Amino acid sequence: MEEIEKKYPVEKDKALSKKTKKFLARFNALELTAANLSVTDARKAFADLQASSEVDYSGIEESELNIDSGGYKIKLNIIKPENSKGSLPFFVFIHGGGWILGDYPSHRRLVRDLVVRSGTAGIFINYSLSPEAKYPRALDEIAATLDWVSKNADDYGLDATRIALVGNSAGANMAIASAIRGIENKGTEIKLQILMWPVTSYTTDWKSYEKYGRDRFLTAQKMKWMFDNYTSDEQALGSIYISPVLADRKLLKKLPPTLIQVAEADILRDQGEKFGRKLDQAGVEVTTIRYNGMIHDFGLLNPLAKLAQAKSQIAHASAELHKYLWT
User: Fold this and answer.
1) Which PANTHER family match (predicted)?
2) pTM here?
């Protein structure tokens, strides 16, 4: 790791935009490493980071709903465009945070932007976090939610025939796993999946891991810490539900149209792009976009929300939602 730091220092990294470097200088000065943070402290640090910037929450109507499904009690947030009428298509948002961090407040601005730009409603799942709830608990709760919304969406002004899955990072990982499970179990039909900087493999033998494994917000050390908290089952780590890049074409070809968004200076970049290529080879309608100069979670982080690249990321995702759910 010391060699990585010497070979690819942040201040000399031409893959980072000027504004991203400024953010990293402030963030890295906080020394929020996996080695010196408890899970509780990490959750608070992430919440504080997201709350540190003023962002726009206008143009939406929000409600909370507690459901019982599949033996689980799950809280949902429903987000609609302001003054919307009729039965709306919707996306189910599965949040990131390495399976251990994150909640609706920390992802609210991102979800709001997608709702306002696309005119589509959103359902945010407050799944149980690790390490309190280990794999596959969160996936089971997501499956229970999808089953519930497919049967009850109409009661809330939502159209269950027009559903997308959207997830960021570990949430994107679970979106893929949920789509695969749905195929295997003949579950809810998904029209589109949007995968923002997804985790598609538990392995570290990627060039982007080597180049960007330190000091770029998501580090190799943090990623290992997150996997360790999610599960200690080696067999599970190598399964298609955690490492979907290992899935074969016969299964992948059944996945819905997909948008994959990756950041240039992100350790997960290469595995996200690899998954996109595998989907293409399997015959799936897939678009993979790399945002140069950006780091992991650039589209989620409120301190970066005003960057041109972050705005473009929202515009691209919203356009896909409109394309596949409205036309």
Assistant:
1) AB HYDROLASE SUPERFAMILY PROTEIN C4A8.06C, ALPHA_BETA HYDROLASE FOLD-3 DOMAIN-CONTAINING PROTEIN-RELATED
2) 0.97
